[in-house]
């Protein structure tokens, strides 16, 4: 989390936008973690909470719509690449999305494994673009504030303790590395004495 915090701290809203878009297009990036860290950094005052929420909603909808259009344009060819499942399972998932339409797209927003597949499945299955956009937008408007708010709430309830622990662990990390180095040197010296 410290590296992710530094990335978001350095690149701000742009990092949130890019990571969330990539996660919603289908790349394995820690979208929920980014949203939670964004909320936490908003609690710290490094970012503005309303801006984090708006950027995250826009990026989630953008990424999902890119996946939708890829599914619409390339159909079954792209689905095999987006979804690591047997072809029969992909067809069942696509039938589910086609049968339940907007409800399936909305529900998929809350299920990490399905979130990425809903766009390509809906696009490849022929769900209309307006219907997909509406369901996707409603899902993002409900989902994003909850996840960002969780990060903010963690800061509000535990923020001072987390910062204290982070400082302590930073020192502890150095101590552990020194102890490991000393143990390695001691083992090497003992092994040398046994051989002589």
Structure, described:
With about 200 residues, the protein is mainly alpha-helical. It has one domain. Helices cover about 90% and strands about 0% of the residues. It contains eight helices and no strands. The protein starts with a helix and ends with a helix. The model has no long low-confidence stretch (mean pLDDT about 80).
What key attributes describe this structure?
single chain; mainly alpha; 8 helices; flat
The main β sheet shows up as: none
The value of Rg in angstroms is 22 Å
Distance between the termini: 47 Å
The structural domain count equals: 1
Task: Compose a concise summary of this entry.
This protein is mainly α. 88% of the residues lie in helices and 0% in strands.
Topology:
Blueprint: H1 2-11, H2 13-25, H3 31-44, H4 49-74, H5 76-82, H6 87-108, H7 112-125, H8 129-195
Helix pairs in contact: 1-2, 1-3, 2-3, 2-4, 3-4, 3-8, 4-7, 4-8, 5-7, 6-7, 6-8
């Amino acid at each position: 989390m410290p590296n992710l915090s530094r990335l978001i701290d350095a690149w701000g809203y742009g990092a949130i936008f890019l990571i969330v878009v990539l996660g919603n297009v289908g790349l394995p990036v820690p979208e929920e973690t980014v949203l939670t860290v964004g909320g936490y950094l908003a609690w710290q005052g490094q970012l503005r909470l309303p801006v984090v929420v708006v950027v995250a909603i826009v990026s989630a909808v953008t990424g999902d719509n890119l996946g939708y259009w890829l599914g619409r344009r390339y159909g079954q060819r792209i689905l095999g690449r987006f979804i690591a499942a047997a072809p029969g399972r992909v067809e069942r998932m696509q039938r589910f999305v086609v049968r339940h339409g907007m409800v399936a797209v909305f529900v998929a927003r809350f299920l990490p494994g399905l979130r990425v597949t809903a766009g390509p499945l809906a696009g490849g299955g022929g769900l209309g673009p307006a219907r997909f956009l509406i369901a996707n937008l409603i899902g993002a408007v409900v989902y994003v504030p909850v996840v960002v708010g969780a990060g903010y709430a963690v800061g509000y309830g535990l923020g001072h303790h987390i910062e204290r622990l982070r400082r302590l662990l930073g020192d502890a990390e150095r101590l552990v590395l020194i102890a490991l180095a000393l143990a390695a040197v001691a083992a090497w010296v003992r092994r040398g004495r046994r051989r002589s």
